[in-house]
Amino acid sequence: MNVRRRHISGIAIAAATALGLGTLSACSDSAAAANTDKFDVVAAFYPLQYLAEQIGGSHVHVTSLTKPGQEPHDLEISAQQTAALGQSDAVLYLKNLQPSVDSVVSQSDVRTKIDAASLTTEEKHGNEVGGHAASHDTSKNDELAGLDPHIWLDPVRYAQVAEGVGKAFEKADPKNAADYKARTAALVKKLDALNTEFKTGLANTKTKVFITTHAAFGYLAERYGLTEEAINGLDPESEPSAKRVKDLEKMAKADGVTTVFYETLVSDKTAKTIAADANLKTDVLDPIEGITKKSRGKDYFSVQQANLKALRTALGTK
């Protein structure tokens, strides 16, 4: 393994002082990333944690800053996590998704910083981009002006990120580079197969339009020729305007939409209200920001396959 960093950044020292060294020695899994005999990686949230685990295998010790069931957008990093991050070998994050993570990473002297957003291309998605119901909606949402961070929901972009992470691991831990390379190739192959499943499964549907609670599925929709209509914007906690709700109900009727999708980590109240008013069904479409007992699968691939099944049912296969 490469020569390991064992000094603590100024941020980490401050955090350790505030908490007491005894607290750090007994911290939770999300903070206990450092000082193992493996390549220590701190991942910002589940999709990045999964990549690190799949690529790193037995050579890495991976912890996530975001706990299962916690909404990643709302994460505030604790002093414990800041201290542990400072002692780790690498951090894997997605710039502009979690401001508190961006801030800590920018100030940390952790040797290997991997920004997943830099490993693929990001685009603007949201109700004003390609959304025909939203073209009549005058509500304002600053979140929609930003780049869509949900790159992992597109298997092709996720594979690009995987390749970049693999190369970063090879460079940072050259002793195990051959294993990282092989495991990355195997993961990319699985993602290619998943992409084929989606492409084939969604090629012939009765409608191409689906409604979700927030605009997480723009990349997926674009990849497979669908149109996502989000009740909210990129912010899952935002509230839609009354006009937006009315437009969605009209659009659902015109385009043969049968289902309003909600997700596992955010309240389903708005989705169920709109569905009831428009006489539509509800179902889960999981943005895979975390795996919990409510998830329809145990990992990224099984949840994506559940998403494909839900989309095929809602869109109607010919």
Structure characterization notes:
- The protein is built from eleven helices and eight strands.
- It has 318 residues and is of the alpha/beta class.
- A four-stranded parallel sheet has the order 2-1-3-4, sandwiched between helices.
- Helix 7 runs parallel beside helix 11.
- The N terminus is likely disordered.
Strand percentage lies at: 5-15%
CA radius of gyration is 21 Å
Structural class: alpha/beta
Low-pLDDT ranges: 1-33, 127-145
- Main beta sheet strand tally, sense and closure: 4 strands, parallel
- H-E string: HHEHEHEHEHHEHEHEHEH
* Gap from first CA to last CA: 54 Å
Name the overall outline.
globular
Helix content: 40-55%
Spatially, the strands of the biggest sheet line up as 2-1-3-4
Number of helices: 11
Number of strands: 8
Mean pLDDT: 83
Blueprint of the fold:
Layout lengths: L9 H10 L1 H5 L13 E5 L2 H11 L3 E5 L14 H9 L2 E4 L5 H9 L4 E4 L39 H18 L4 H25 L7 E4 L5 H6 L3 E4 L11 H14 L3 E4 L6 H9 L3 E4 L15 H16 L3
Parallel strand pairs: 1-2, 1-3, 3-4, 5-6, 5-7, 7-8
Helix pairs in contact: 1-4, 3-6, 6-7, 7-11
In short, what is this structure?
This protein has 11 helices and 8 strands.
Features:
4-stranded parallel beta sheet; globular; 11 helices; 318 residues; disordered N terminus; alpha/beta; 42% helix
